[in-house]
Amino acid sequence: MNMNTNIKELTVKLEKVVLEKTGYDISNVPVFYGSRNLCYVISNSIKPVAIRISKSDNGSREAIASELLFMDYLKQFIHTICQAIPFCGSLVNTVIVDNESFDIVVFRKGNGYPCLNCTTPGFLKASGSLLGKIHSASIQAGKERFHFKRKKLV
Question: Are strands 49-55 and 100-108 parallel, antiparallel or unpaired?
């Protein structure tokens, strides 16, 4: 069996687990690959969501929890920031598939639309402005002694 077959089989198993745990069918949803995550964005439901699946590493659950706490703190400054939605009694759920551990988080999808041309001056200015707001809120968080753990990725 080649590597691509293994990945396809694992993906199908993960899709079934996500459906069981969250009620969302991600089998026909486009997936976005990151360096550490798979992200499925479900836009055509009454409550649009993004489902993020990460391979569990040592301490990754704690890092994800810190990230969610920080995002929760930022919502007082930026009301459109995505928030995690609890399922199965938790914001972060760890599942085992083929002896591999994965962390699953469901987020309320942020408002917006896909960027067709992300290099226009208007887009760059708008995204820079938003990043500036997040940075400003982060500075305010530090002044108020709100701390979250950062995980060194490299």
Answer: antiparallel
Q: pTM of the predicted model, to two decimals?
A: 0.71
The domain that holds 86 is classified in CATH as 3.30.200.20
CA distance 112 to 98: 36
- Domain for residue 149, yes or no? no
Partners of residue 31 on adjacent β-strands = 40
Which range, of 1-10, 85-94, 99-108, 143-152, averages the lowest pLDDT?
A: 143-152
Beta strand extents in 4-152 (DSSP E only): 31-33, 37-42, 49-55, 84-85, 93-97, 100-108
Helices (H) and strands (E) in the chain, counts: 3, 6
153 lies in a domain?
A: no
- What DSSP letter does each residue of 58-95 carry, written as one string? TTHHHHHHHHHHHHHHHTTT-TTS--EE-BTTBSSEEE
